[in-house]
Structures are given as structure tokens and as C-alpha cells.
Write a structure and sequence with these properties.
- The protein is an alpha/beta fold.
- It has 3 domains: 15-201 and 273-296 and 305-331, Immunoglobulins (Immunoglobulin-like, Sandwich), CATH 2.60.40.10; 217-265, no CATH class; 411-498, no CATH class.
- The chain has 12 helices and 23 strands.
- Strands 1, 3, 4, 6, 7, 8, 9, 10, 11, 12 and 13 form an 11-stranded mixed beta sheet that branches. A 4-stranded antiparallel beta sheet has the order 14-15-20-19, with no helix packed on it.
- α10 (306-321) packs across α11.
- The termini are far apart.
């Protein structure tokens, strides 16, 4: 009897012991970054002995006092498949692992926007048969403390998994694989509507007073929600709405809109650091080649500060990843909506400028200009293949040594001559579509911009308006949805710019 009791007790104690485990980034079908040393890590009981068999080698280690273990392997060339075996109190085997190029695809809804919703997405999924292009989607919820793992696993980029995968990410990876002919792994890590502040640790945001107002406003929102005030107000409005509905039905009037129930800001994709902890921290041990980023729509009310926030985020990710200044390329915002341009202000134009400033002040970065790919009535343009190819141009030229045109033309300098502003660009350009240069505005001392005439001569553009005899400033594509048509020899659009330093609406 005593012996049976001891066996039961031993079985119970054993059940409390943690099995050795691996992060989901080391699932079957994983792609590991080639040409740089990489870690294999996981969890077990504190001080448990672990052996790892990989690439014909057997390595032993021991979990630390918190149950975490890791080993580092030397850089490998592209290839596979390989198997990984990890043994502790239990045994794990991961199969079909490849070495190749690994890119993180992050941002908000335009990066998240899946293949199935894009132009010819159904055909793209039917045609996808490449087993050496692998994908994993991160869908972990928000958190204010760093999580140790993600909830996605690697799979070949085919079928239903591909249909729901990032279109920009997939096209970028597919075209990259076609050029390099090596395995490619894509980590889809985007959250629709997310603010950039959610992707940055709070302690980093606190190092710059320009972020204090946003941090304070969100803290106040959290306090209000905790007090129950928003929910109480919602209940009151709901009762009023129900009465109005009854009145409308009896009188035949249009039904009023139902009030929206307040959401819990604790899990918001706008809350500072929420996505850093849940979506970035779990990836930091995994070696990558670089990041492509498509975000900014959620920050247009704070467009000017984006020129500080984007470099801050990039610097933080690079430091925490401890992989050097890996390439970081982003898409500018597409043309969308219509601004009231009478005062020359446009939050969307201002965030595009902030992105350009960020590129000029942060090394190993680049941007795809897409002011020709948007839709006036839809914030989610469907032509994702073109976006991906413009991002890919940067990677091919800067990271893989291919001689391709990769940069949109940019403003270099200007001078005022008589009643004209003469603008110099860094590349030769031309107009397209109509026999008229579109997209320029010009202003005098009164800072009131008028649609301008313009004439191109290689890399210079003359800008003028008959009514403005003493021009002070010119702008190009300075609107949410600008009508503009200046491109370079590979049809890359001229980067939106302004020659003035006048105060902006979001400054």
C-alpha cells in the first residue's frame, strides 16, 4: 500500500515537471537565416540537461534557473531539408527545416491585407506550388509584458494558409525567391489599425518628450475605462437609441445609428508597447535578414512626429535583435481620399515627408513611393504586387548586389529666378499619361498655394504661375490623393516634397 502511494506521488511530481520545448519559430518547415550564426533555444525544468542534434553535430547544454536554454550554431549556406532533435526528459523532432532568407513583414492593415482580397488573389493561390517558400503568421494578442512565444507555425506558402497571408509580404518573398533561387521564409507580423507607438517599448517612448502627450492621453483613457464611465455612458445612449428607434418605426422615419460599445483600451493596438511585447519580443532570438514595413495610416493625426518615431522604432528593434543594422524598408502611404487643399495642409502629405526624413536620417533604410497605386475611396489599395516589387528593388540593390534602379527620384535643391522656381532632382524624370506636368503647386509671401505650371528638362523642373510674380515655395504631390505624373526611367514616382520650411498642420 505504501509502495503504491509512493508511485502515485512520484507520478504526480513528475507530471509537474516541464517537458523540454521549442518556440513555434522552430516548428516543422521553418526557414532559418543563412550566412549568419543562429540560436536554437527553448524551455525546460531549471537546470535540466539538454542535448541538441542538428547538422550532424550533437551539442549539450543546461537550462538556467528560470528554465531557459539556448545554443548557438555557426552560419550555414542555403539548403536543406534538415531535421532538428532536442532531448531532455522528453524528445522533440522538427523536420523539413531549410536555410535561406528570412524577412519580417510588419505594420498595419495594408501589410496584413491578404492575398485573397488582392487583385487576382484567387489565381495567385491556385498557382502557388513552391515548397521552398515558407510562411508563418503571428496573431498573438496584445500584452504589456513580454511574451516568450508566438502562436503561429511555419507552413509552405500554398492553399488556405497563403490565401490569408500578407499580400505584400508574399509577393516580396515570391519575387525574391525567383531571383535568388534559395529558400525564403516570411514572418507576417502585422496588426490592422495599429499605431507605431504600440510597436515601441514604453521606456523608449519616455526618452523623448515629444511622445509625452500621447502617452498621457492613453493613460487617461485607461483610467476612464477602469472607472466604468464609458460603459455607463454607453448604456445611457443605448436606452436613448432604443426609444428613438421605436419613434422612427412608428413614424416611418430613417432608423438612427446604434451607438458603438466602447472597447477595452488595455488590449488596443494603439496602446503604447502593446505590440512590442506580444509581437516583437518573442522574435528577438530568431535571426533575420531584414524587415519590410507598411504602416502610418493610424498616425496621420501625429504625422510630424513620425519622423522621430520611425527611426526610434528601427533603432530599438535593431538593438534588441542584436543583429546589426539589418535593412529596414517601408512603403509610403498611397494616394487616398481628397484633402481640402486651399490652405496647403495635408496630414497624409506630412506623414509622407516624415517617412522621407526618416530615410535620410537612418542608415540602411529605404522607401517605396506609391502615390500612383491608391484608390480615392478605399484606404486598402488592391495592387499589392507593385508595392512589393518597389520594396524588392531596394533589397536587390542594397542587400543582394543587383544592378537595378531602386530609388524614386528626390528633391535636391531649388533656386528662384524671376517669377519661377527652378527645382533640381537627383535623377532625370519625365511625365506620363498626359502631355502636361501635374502635381506642382506654388505660393508667394501669403503662403497660399495655387496649381502651378511646370516644365521638365532632364533633372530640373521649372515651376511658375502667372499670378505669382515673387514665388517663395513650391510643393509636389502635397495632398492626400494628389494628381501627379512625374516618374523616372523605371516608372518610379517622384517622391513628394516641398521647398519651404513653413509650419505644418501636425507640427
Amino acid at each position: 500500500m505504501k509502495r503504491n502511494f509512493l508511485l502515485i506521488l512520484l507520478s504526480f511530481v513528475t507530471s509537474l515537471c516541464a517537458d523540454v520545448s521549442l518556440p513555434n519559430l522552430y516548428s516543422d518547415n521553418a526557414v532559418i537565416q543563412r550566412h549568419i550564426p543562429f540560436k536554437v533555444w527553448g524551455w525546460a525544468d531549471p537546470h535540466e540537461s539538454i542535448s541538441i542534434e542538428f547538422l550532424g553535430k550533437k551539442v549539450s547544454t543546461q537550462a538556467n534557473e528560470t528554465g531557459t536554454w539556448s545554443v548557438e550554431f555557426p552560419a550555414q549556406k542555403a539548403g536543406g531539408p534538415y531535421s532538428l532533435t532536442v532531448t531532455g526528459k522528453n524528445k522533440l523532432v522538427r523536420n523539413n527545416l531549410l536555410f535561406g532568407e528570412v524577412w519580417v513583414c510588419s505594420g498595419q492593415s495594408n501589410m496584413k491585407w491578404n492575398i485573397g482580397k488582392s487583385v487576382d488573389g484567387d489565381l495567385e493561390v491556385l498557382m502557388a506550388k513552391d515548397d521552398q517558400l515558407r510562411i508563418v503568421t503571428v496573431s498573438t494578442g496584445a500584452s504589456q509584458t513580454s511574451l516568450k512565444d508566438i502562436d503561429g507555425v511555419w507552413t509552405p506558402a500554398t492553399g488556405k494558409a497563403l490565401n490569408e497571408f500578407s499580400a505584400v509580404g508574399y509577393y516580396f518573398g515570391r519575387e525574391l525567391r525567383r531571383v535568388l533561387n534559395v529558400p525564403v521564409g516570411l514572418i507576417n507580423n502585422a496588426w490592422g489599425g495599429s499605431a507605431i507607438e504600440a510597436w515601441i517599448p514604453r521606456e523608449v517612448l519616455l526618452t523623448d518628450e515629444r511622445n509625452f502627450a500621447y502617452l498621457k492621453s492613453f493613460d487617461e483613457r485607461l483610467e476612464q475605462y477602469s472607472s466604468g464611465q464609458p460603459l455607463s455612458l454607453y448604456e445611457e445612449n443605448l436606452k436613448k437609441w432604443e426609444k428613438k428607434v421605436a419613434q422612427a418605426k412608428s413614424s416611418g422615419a430613417p432608423l438612427p445609428r446604434k451607438p458603438r460599445k466602447p472597447t477595452d483600451p488595455r488590449g488596443s493596438q494603439h496602446r503604447p508597447a502593446n505590440l512590442w511585447h506580444s509581437r516583437v519580443a518573442p522574435l528577438l532570438n530568431y535571426s533575420i535578414k531584414g524587415v519590410i514595413w507598411y504602416q502610418g495610416e493610424a498616425n496621420t493625426s501625429r504625422s510630424y512626429n513620425y519622423r522621430h518615431l520611425l527611426p526610434m522604432m528601427i533603432k530599438t528593434w535593431r538593438q534588441k535583435w542584436d543583429s546589426g543594422n539589418f535593412p529596414f524598408y517601408w512603403s509610403q502611404l498611397a494616394d487616398f481620399c481628397r484633402d481640402d487643399e486651399s490652405d496647403g495642409n495635408s496630414p497624409w502629405a506630412e506623414i509622407r515627408e516624415s517617412m522621407t526624413v526618416a530615410m535620410q536620417t537612418t542608415e540602411n533604410t529605404g522607401q517605396a513611393v506609391i502615390t500612383d497605386l491608391g484608390e480615392e475611396q478605399d484606404i486598402h489599395p488592391r495592387r499589392k504586387l507593385e508595392v512589393a516589387k518597389r520594396l524588392l528593388r531596394w533589397a536587390l540593390a542594397k542587400d543582394y548586389g543587383f544592378d537595378v534602379v531602386f530609388k524614386s527620384p528626390m528633391y535636391e535643391s531649388h533656386e528662384v529666378k524671376d517669377n519661377k522656381i527652378i527645382i533640381t532632382l537627383d535623377q532625370d524624370v519625365k511625365w506620363f499619361d498626359v502631355k502636361k506636368v501635374l502635381g506642382f503647386t506654388i505660393a508667394g509671401e501669403d503662403e497660399k498655394f495655387l496649381e502651378a505650371n511646370a516644365r521638365i528638362s532632364k533633372n530640373t523642373i521649372e515651376v511658375w504661375h502667372e499670378k505669382i510674380k515673387a514665388p517663395r515655395a513650391a510643393r509636389y504631390a502635397w495632398a492626400g490623393n494628389p494628381l501627379c505624373n512625374v516618374i523616372n526611367k523605371k516608372d518610379l514616382p517622384l517622391t513628394p516634397f516641398r521647398t519651404d520650411k513653413w509650419k505644418l498642420s501636425t507640427e
